[in-house]
From TrEMBL:
InterPro entries: GDSL, GDSL_Est/Lipase, SGNH_hydro_sf. The chain crosses the membrane at residues 21-37. The keyword S-adenosyl-L-methionine does not apply. Keywords: Hydrolase, Membrane, Transmembrane, Transmembrane helix. This is SGNH hydrolase-type esterase domain-containing protein. The keyword Zinc does not apply. SUPFAM superfamilies: SGNH hydrolase. It comes from Kwoniella europaea PYCC6329. GO terms for molecular function: hydrolase activity, acting on ester bonds.
């Protein structure tokens, strides 16, 4: 029998025209798919998904650094768990620039006396807190009228809601049993009369607040119940909101608007000069804050609100103010030499919160009122970012205090200069 396979039916091969059509169809489908993929990853299609935009755009060298990365860089780094021991002046250099020596222990003199040498700042060891500012920070205290107390706000102890951000810093993020807190901030305060006076004389300025401090709390160590010293006291200075609001109101200035670059520079120069005065009175630990993006607050952002017509001017003036402040704070630290000078970039932090409210548990970043069954609930509990058209809610204030606390801790000797194991800091 023959082993030859039975012949199979004749195969039908496609014509060249059909082949060209199939190949062309494949290319068209692939092109549509690639175009769709590119569109899905474009900034326009991503909308508010800034986290994905960050990952996609980070590979493009000409793209501006993402705000999250900018903000993170404003914090000192911490050692990784692999970097143990104590940073010293000699030894190997760790990944984050700290010099590590596994066997040596650097002793830090944290004495409570006054010294001309720069002593490392340590937030857990701070015992006195002075705050200067405006309605963003105030507790409406009048120490000239009521006298200097012991610096313990009993009404804040154990409280969780309806506080300003420095209240949270004092009562929640530090031990209020040992931290004394005096708040000299005043509603409506500006930096200095000579640049932009306050709306009412009673509001005062940074200068008048320092006058109160000098008269009531100096010379060192101040009244018996205060007993503050250079190394155990933190001075917080937050100004500029009222100044930038008044700067952009033409009705307050005869002959039209003020020169924004020149005026904001004068404001920052005055702020730093007044801070030098605090330094001359014994202050050695300073915390400054940039201004938040005021143009994004409801007062300037919403068409129905009073400041909408000047929101672009407010944005410009805040940008000039913050740029001047960042460089001037650094220069101030270099000039005095013996002080710890820190800057919390509230502008960068607040922009991140406005872009990603969900990450912070914030419900709405524009509306500031809510009515339920005909009644007004607690707006902070509702997760609103703002309490009114300009001031932040207590939920936002708590978030700001939490972030400031993180910056203070990152700058602290207990973190940066302590003896670290893989699991523990020992200061």
């Amino acid at each position: 029998m023959s082993r030859r396979r039975a012949s199979s039916p004749d195969l039908i091969y496609p014509s060249r025209r059909v082949m060209r059509f199939c190949v062309l169809s494949i290319f068209i489908i692939a092109g549509v798919w690639l175009f769709t993929l590119k569109a899905d990853l474009s900034p326009e299609s991503l909308g508010d998904s800034q986290l994905l935009k960050r990952a996609v755009l980070s590979n493009e060298g000409d793209v501006k650094e993402h705000p999250i990365d900018e903000y993170v860089k404003s914090f000192p780094k911490v050692r990784s768990w692999k970097e143990t021991g104590v940073p010293t002046s000699t030894g190997r250099e760790g990944e984050n620039g700290l010099v590590i020596e596994d066997d040596d222990i650097m002793e830090i003199e944290m004495g409570m006396g006054d010294t001309k040498e720069k002593v490392p700042f340590d937030w857990p060891r701070v015992r006195k807190l002075f705050v200067f500012g405006d309605s963003f920070s105030t507790r409406d205290k009048d120490y000239r009228k009521d006298g200097v107390d012991w610096g313990h706000f009993q009404e804040l102890h154990g409280k969780a809601t309806d506080m300003k951000w420095p209240d949270y810093l004092y009562a929640v993020f530090h031990d209020f049993h040992i931290l004394q807190y005096w708040n000299l901030a005043k509603v409506g305060a500006t930096i200095h009369h000579s640049v932009l006076p306050p709306g009412l004389e009673s509001y005062g300025t940074f200068e008048t607040q320092i006058n109160d401090f000098e008269d009531l709390f100096t010379p060192l160590p101040g009244p018996r119940q205060v007993d503050w010293h250079s190394n155990d006291t933190l001075f917080i200075v937050v100004f500029g909101i009222n100044d930038n609001g008044r700067l952009n109101r033409d009705d307050l200035h005869e002959g039209g608007g003020l020169d924004v670059p020149a005026t904001t520079k004068a404001l920052v120069d005055s702020l730093i000069n007044q801070s030098r005065r605090l330094h001359s009175l014994g202050a050695r630990n300073f915390l400054f804050m940039t201004l938040p993006p005021l143009h994004l607050s409801p007062k300037y952002k919403l068409p129905s609100q009073v400041g909408y017509d000047i929101h672009e001017r407010v944005e410009l003036s805040v940008t000039h103010f913050n740029d001047n402040l960042r460089s001037s704070v650094k220069q101030f630290e270099d000039d005095v030499g013996d002080s710890n000078v820190m800057l919390f970039d509230l502008n960068k932090f607040w922009k991140i919160l406005l872009d990603y409210p969900e990450l912070f548990g914030i419900t709405d970043v524009s509306r500031f009122r809510m009515t339920i069954d005909g009644r007004l609930p607690n707006f902070g509990r509702m997760g609103l970012a703002y309490h009114d058209n300009q001031h932040v809610s207590w939920s936002s204030a708590e978030l700001i205090a939490r972030s400031v606390n993180g910056l203070l801790m990152r700058n602290s000797a207990s973190i940066q200069f302590s003896n670290a194991s893989q699991t523990e800091y020992t200061a």
